[in-house]
Design goal:
This protein is an alpha/beta fold. The chain has ten helices and five strands; from the N terminus they run ααβαβαβαααααββα. The chain has a single domain, classed as Carbonic anhydrase (Beta-carbonic Anhydrase, Chain A), CATH 3.40.1050. The protein is about 50% helix and about 15% strand. A five-stranded mixed β-sheet has the order 2-1-3-4-5.
Length: about 220
Amino acid sequence: MTPYEKIFENNRRWAEEQLRTDPEYFAKLSVEQRPDFLYIGCSDSRVPANQIMGLPPGDVFVHRNIANLVNNVDLNVMSVISYGVQTLDVKHIIVCGHYGCGGVKAAMQPRDLGILNPWLRNIRDVYRLHKAELDAIKDEAQRYDRLVEINVTEQCINIIKTAAVQKSFLIRGFPTVHAWVFDMRNGLIKDLKLDFRATLRNIQQVYDLTGSSWD
């Protein structure tokens, strides 16, 4: 059996196991999704959203791309955020990066990476904004780890700039935005403790799309 063929065997075994545990599992799963969480993560195959969160299918709405970027001209991620907030009523939006991210490392190499250049430029821009802090870190591994963290925080700020999130929070009190980093060295999620309300207040003078006071 080839690795490709084995996938279907694994799938059959998984489906059978779910039905043994709950005969109505797929009947309930197929009705609708109503997740509390929107997870925006890296495409890295070693960071599966549901598994690291310990949540079953149906509980997490997921979007993934290289280096977990939230670019305002990327219609894919903007559509996911809009649908998650306006249709699914997600209560939490999580940006989850991970230490050892290949996209972050690639962005710091002085090389022409072809089609990846415009995408990775977003990370290079993050470095430029925080250059003084990052350049002060002499250990290269620690500098990369810190850039991973800063990149996650900057992507959270990009989410908070969106009209969908601002309007929903003003009217309904959700969603809130969270910054996480997954550490593959120990399997644990690090909460960067983003102060959502303070961040929203700090950016509202320039990025307020509601015309209302947040105080």
